[in-house]
Amino acid sequence: MQVVNSFWARCALAAASGAVYSLAFPPLGWGWLVIPGLAGLILVLQGQHGTRARSLGFLHGIHNKVHTVHFFDDGIPGITADVIETDHGKIGTPICFDCDYEGVARRMTASGAQLFMVPVMDAISWTRRQHDQHAELFRIRAAQNGRWMFVCATSGVSMAIDPHGHLHGRLGALEQGTLVASVKGETRITAYTRFGWLAPWMILGVAVLGWLMLLLPVKKKAGDAANARNILC
Question: What would the pLDDT profile of 94-134 be if each residue is shown by its tens digit?
């Protein structure tokens, strides 16, 4: 019943939009009746009915941004890092701030992602140096996981990056234009994806163990105590 109500609610919204459209453009007359049908189809496809859209061939998968931006109304964070099956292979779609952390891209690679398509929106108020600094993180993620990465930015740096982190195309921050590059899927799993990401935690564990050992009391030998008394005498 929830799906039916949602569907009809979207159709009602479509009809209302059609009526407004007809009032704005009176020459269309009764032609506005066509608008609700088209608008309703678009609303359904863009709504929560993923199974219907997928059966029609429009929607292949969904990724909700896992790492939302701090102190910013960035929606409810997702919890999955699934890949999207396409005719061109399995694609990972981390979103912008997801790549500021290593986990999402690594989990997608481990799940079978052969390349990455990454939408990005930096803050327009950033300086050019801040945009460039943020762009370096995507090169790191590509090299860590051995995957091609195509970064599509509305207000940041758009790039085509190979599995070694090298650039094969770039549009600078806030530059308007078209970036064309050839990318391909990769299947090799890097050492970083397998276990290299554990290295910082292992180093941290060794450091903590070292500090704990320094806090342990040191037992003095009897001979050392006698020598200390003789020196004092």
Answer: 999 999 999 999 999 999 999 999 999 999 999 999 999 99
CA-to-CA distance for 58 and 39, rounded, in angstroms? 15
Q: Which value, to the nearest 10 degrees, does the dihedral of the CA atoms of residues 174, 150, 159, 126 take?
A: 40
Q: In 3-state terms, the chain is what percent helix, strand and coil (to 5)?
A: 50, 10, 40
Phi, psi (5° rounding) for residue 167?
A: -85, 135
Domains and CATH numbers, the chain: 2-55 (no CATH), 84-196 (3.60.110.10)
pLDDT in tens, 149-172: 999 999 999 999 999 999 999 999
With CA atoms as reference, report the closest residue to 173 among 208, 112, 228, 128.
128
Partners of 148 in beta bridges = 115
pLDDT tens, position by position, 80-90: 999 999 988 99
pTM: 0.67
**Distance in angstroms (rounded) separating the CA atoms of residues 182 and 179:** 10
Secondary structure of residue 226 in the 3-state scheme? helix
Helix ranges restricted to H, 65-198: 103-110, 128-145, 191-194
Neighbours of 157 (CB within 10 A): 23
Beta bridge mates, 150: 117, 160
